[in-house]
């Protein structure tokens, strides 16, 4: 099953983008070639760009505090396993402490590295990191993979408190949604959302053998999904067929 996620607000959209970038960074750092490590650096700079939003860190800290308070309220509830509750609260508290201890914005420590910033200033220019433009960077690319990976891990380490906070918050959000089967009639599905409940994330899983691509839209009152099929020239057209898929709405 292929998973698609759709955020209902800008905060979750930013978190999903950062999670996507951290996943890409981790995959690229594990590889061997200089080209992969070049794009690992590109990804590192993209994370810094997204994380430089003034209120991101404070927003994540507030969310962690809110979740901790919500879980603390379950203490003494006979239907809740105390050991499991302690584990979840411990993860939230640990993520809060490490993110709070981070000086300034996420990635701020890297901005004092003149060598990295010289690469960052040219990496968005087409061909701007050629050996005649940045000979020191070209020399770094000739180092053994283990040395380059060590440097990348050192630089990425300054961003790990942010990655941990995202992992905790998005994990809790995803766990709040109960998946269920729904049916799309003639390639279209709509569902009204109950008043008084604010959903933050839609998750849907669909069988890849169907060859369908969902176009998702939604707001606090309704969600709409159109199932599309791509033709040989890449254009998307509505697949007017009855189809079932799995849907979860996360509070």
Computed structural class: alpha+beta
Shape: globular
What is the residue-mean pLDDT, rounded to a whole number?
A: 92
Q: Ends: how far apart?
A: 23 Å
Radius of gyration: 22 Å
Could you state the order of secondary-structure elements as H and E?
Answer: EHHHHHHHHEEEEEEE
Low-confidence stretches are none
Percent strand: 15-25%
| Beta strand count | 8
Largest sheet: 4 strands, antiparallel
Helix content range of the residues, please? 40-55%
* Total of DSSP H or I helical runs spanning 4+ residues: 8
Strands of the widest sheet, in order across it, are 1-4-8-2
Model description:
By secondary structure, this protein is α+β, with helices and mostly antiparallel strands. It is built from eight helices and eight strands, in the order βααααααααβββββββ. It has a four-stranded antiparallel β-sheet. β6 and β7 (236-238) form a beta hairpin. α1 packs across α8 (160-175), α3 (56-72) crosses α8 and α4 (82-100) packs antiparallel against α8. The longest helix is centred in the N-terminal third of the chain and has 20 residues, at 10-29. The chain is globular and about 60 Å long. The chain starts with a strand and ends with a strand.
């Amino acid at each position: 099953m292929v998973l698609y996620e759709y955020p209902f607000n800008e905060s979750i959209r930013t978190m999903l983008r950062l999670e996507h970038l951290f996943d890409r960074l981790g995959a690229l750092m594990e590889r061997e070639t200089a080209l992969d490590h070049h794009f690992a650096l590109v990804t590192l700079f993209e994370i810094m760009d997204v994380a430089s939003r003034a209120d991101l860190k404070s927003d994540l800290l507030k969310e962690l505090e809110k979740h901790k308070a919500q879980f603390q309220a379950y203490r003494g509830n006979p239907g809740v396993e105390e050991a499991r509750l302690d584990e979840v609260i411990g993860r939230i508290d640990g993520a809060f402490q490490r993110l709070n201890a981070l000086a300034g914005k996420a990635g701020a420590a890297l901005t004092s590295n003149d060598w990295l910033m010289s690469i960052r200033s040219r990496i968005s220019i087409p061909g701007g990191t050629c050996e005649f433009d940045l000979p020191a960077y070209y020399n770094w690319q000739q180092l053994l993979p283990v040395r380059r990976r060590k440097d990348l891990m050192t630089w990425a380490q300054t961003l790990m408190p942010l990655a941990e906070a995202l992992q905790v918050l998005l994990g809790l959000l995803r766990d709040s949604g109960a998946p269920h089967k729904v049916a799309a009639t003639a390639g279209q599905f709509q569902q009204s959302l109950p008043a008084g409940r604010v959903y933050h994330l839609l998750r849907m899983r669909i069988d890849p053998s169907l060859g369908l691509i969902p176009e998702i839209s939604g707001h606090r009152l309704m969600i709409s999904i159109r199932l599309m099929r791509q033709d040989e020239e890449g254009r998307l057209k509505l697949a007017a067929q009855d189809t079932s898929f799995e849907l979860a709405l996360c509070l």
